[in-house]
Here is the input.
Amino acid sequence: MNWEAILAPYSQVVEELKVKLKGMRAQFEYEASHSPIEFITGRVKPVQSILEKAEKRNIPIDRIEQDITDIAGVRVVCQFVDDIYTIVKMLQSRKDFRIIEEKDYISEKKASGYRSYHMTIEYPVETIHGNKVLLAEIQIRTLAMNFWATNEHSLNYKYKGRIPSDVEKRLQRAAEAAFKLDEEMSKIKTEIQEAQRIFHRK
Ligand code: 0O2
Here is the structure.
């Protein structure tokens, strides 16, 4: 399989989505006092991770592009939980891609403690062989959710998916703490935003 050739259009999808989301962020900064977007990242899933996921989920090689929906992935990181839903609404009204699935792991967290909003989209991209519609995943989360998920992801990698139960318990507690942090920050949101406006003017 020529993975580089297969993944090249996915890399283009990631780059295009990043440009568009960064465009939204810039517009917010010019037009509003608060940008709901803190930062944006993106990646194409490495071939090894694609193959591992396919094996784990019994996906045949010829179904990978249809069944693994996060080969192209972008992440929008926000300051506050409210900001996530502002971005979700804006993405829902866009005409340049079609949302095929949404998962709100914020109102209902995963068993691991993971919280984030996931959107699977069909994104049309121009290739040298014509127009192709590729799947991509947009993850929207707060800074606190991102902090937790990044650390949990590293531990999962370290323990090859079998995190010891004492560490797992600590992660559960950390997830609770991150949730509380988001709640507390939401309560003092206006105060924080005022402080940030003063800081910007200086
Ligand atoms: P990567 O690229 O290294 O991040 P499903 O579980 O199928 O109902 P979901 O959750 O959308 O739906 O799909 P999936 O495949 O389980 O997870 C997709 C991605 O979401 C993951 O990518 C992670 O980025 C993130 N994610 C989901 N669950 C967790 C979790 O419990 N902890 C953390 N840290 N991240 C999670 P990959 O495949 O891990 O790869």
